[in-house]
Design a protein that fits this description.
heterodimer, A: mainly alpha, 9 helices, flat, B: 263 residues, alpha/beta, four-stranded antiparallel β-sheet, 7 helices
């Protein structure tokens, strides 16, 4: 399963992408300002709500499965010591809360990606950041969103190609080496082909972007985003 | 009109110098001194075996490949002088449509080209609707690309090219990997575009699907044009260069031989 835009008519789909960007920024700031279990519990409800508002469900988070082992391992690594007491619970707890914050951010990001077409993201950045810098950032975001799903599919294809010829019986490190080499080759090839496809269709730095407009539903969500940002600033300062 | 004059394209290293001062050329010659004109509204088939230079040749039409020597012009303007005009005038679909589709949804992908041309939103919407209608996918703009069959992806790729409203539509091996109904569907769309006045260029190593509709067939071998003429003249010589031709093709002038499974 790939984490990418899914057409729909959910609340999140109807929101202006700038609203969703503000909520993401506010949420990220709040997550790093409110680090207590109680604060994170409130943010958990918000993160779950954002995924629900995008018509998503926990299955969507399967796209993050490669990040989850790192998030789970972080508290163990942070808590471990080379001598007695061998494991410090307080350090592990701090790292676990940090990992959990990252997980919450990924949930909110999943809601955004699921409900926002690439060109809307590009338009939001282009409108928010003026001039060439905005155009440059918009193109960067658009290319990342276009390239990553393709690259991920190529990696999966490389893994399947290894498996169908008995490669699944090889040691893990050997499989990793094969897939890494094949994946790197495919990534370069894919970048070439994507570049050719964009060129064939007159890729432009300043295309006609979707019209963006705040609607009535945007205002309470904008207030939520601004509120999250404000509480984060107030807590930090 | 697309015009090529003395076009040569090479891949790989050029003129690698040796210590003794002599130079050797270890590049691959893909297109060798080709001169060709493609008038507006023509249904042209570029035929040849794998590696004969077909794809490289047609990619010079809109500047995706820049020739090492020679000139390519579209409507009288050298491609190198105005790439955007060339790419708007010469729409192209790739051999594997997955290489061409850059958006998550059908509508978003078809709109991608017109958006890059900077057209007004209303005009983009009109073109997207017309292009999807032309490939029999009207009302499917919100479908996800990943859920489409191979034939549907090929049709979306064609729609993406048509939305640019090109003078010429170049399709590189458009029938590869398609089953019979999908081939028939794509062929029907191409015939309709041709009937509507758009020039169509089909690149293929298998003439069976398209020879009946071609105005002209160009045969390529080792990057050189070995035959150029109406199907009745060109087809009989093409099997010699590894092109699959319809069984029972009548060299005396029956340009509408049906598709056959015989090699």
């Amino acid at each position: 399963m790939t984490l990418e835009y899914v057409p729909g008519d959910s609340l999140a789909h109807r929101l202006d992408p700038r609203t969703k960007l503000l909520v993401q920024i506010g949420f990220a700031a709040a997550a790093y300002a409110h680090t207590t279990p109680r604060g994170l519990a409130v943010l958990t409800l918000l993160a779950g709500g954002s995924l629900w508002a995008a018509d998503g469900d926990p299955v969507d988070l399967w796209g993050y499965r490669f990040a989850l082992p790192v998030l789970l391992a972080a508290p163990l690594v942070a808590g471990a010591t080379l001598g007695t007491p061998w494991f410090r619970v307080a350090r592990a707890e701090t790292a676990a809360l940090a990992s959990y914050r990252v997980l919450l951010l990924l949930v909110v990001a999943a809601a955004y990606v699921r409900s926002t077409p690439v060109r809307d993201s590009r338009a939001a950045i282009h409108h928010t950041v003026p001039g060439r810098i905005g155009a440059f950032l918009g193109v960067g975001v658009a290319l990342v969103f276009r390239f990553l799903p393709l690259l991920r599919r190529d990696l999966l294809a490389a893994r399947e190609a290894v498996h169908v010829r008995g490669g699944d019986r090889l040691p893990v490190h050997e499989r990793m080496r094969l897939i890494a080499v094949a994946g790197t080759n495919r990534a370069f090839g894919r970048a070439d082909r994507l570049g050719t496809a964009l060129a064939a269709r007159c890729f432009a730095w300043n295309p006609t972007l979707p019209r963006l407009a705040f609607r009535r539903a945007d205002y309470p969500v904008l207030a939520l985003g601004a509120g999250l940002l404000a509480t984060a600033v107030a807590t930090t300062v | 009109m697309i015009t090529l004059e003395d076009v040569t394209c090479r891949y790989g290293a050029h003129d690698r110098g040796e210590d003794d001062g002599d130079a050797i050329d270890d590049s691959v010659l893909a297109v060798d001194d080709v001169t060709l004109s493609v008038p507006d509204g023509e249904f042209l088939v570029v035929a040849g075996a794998n590696g004969s230079g077909k794809t490289t040749l047609v990619r010079t039409f809109n500047g995706l490949v820049r020739p090492d020597s020679g000139t390519v012009s579209v409507n009288g303007t050298p491609v190198s002088e105005d790439l955007v005009a060339a790419r708007a005038a010469v729409g192209m679909t790739f051999q594997d449509p997955r290489d061409q589709l850059v958006s998550a949804t059908v509508g978003g992908d078809v709109a991608f080209g017109p958006e890059n041309l900077g057209l007004p939103r209303e005009e983009i919407d009109r073109r997207v609707e017309a292009a999807l209608d032309a490939v029999d996918m009207a009302g499917r703009g919100d479908d996800r690309i990943t859920t489409l069959s191979g034939g549907e992806r090929q049709r979306v790729a064609i729609a993406g090219a048509l939305a640019m409203e090109p003078d010429h539509l170049v399709c590189d091996e458009p029938f590869t990997g398609l089953d019979e109904p999908a081939r028939e569907s794509v062929l029907t769309r191409l015939r309709e575009r041709h009937a509507g006045g758009t020039g169509v260029v089909v690149v293929t190593h298998d003439l069976r699907d398209v020879v009946g509709f071609a105005d002209r067939v160009v045969g390529l071998d080792d990057g050189r044009i070995v035959v150029d003429g109406p199907p009745s003249e060109a087809v009989p010589t093409l099997s010699d260069i590894g092109v699959r031709v319809p069984a029972g093709f009548d060299a005396a002038g029956d340009d509408h031989a049906g598709r056959s499974d015989e090699p």
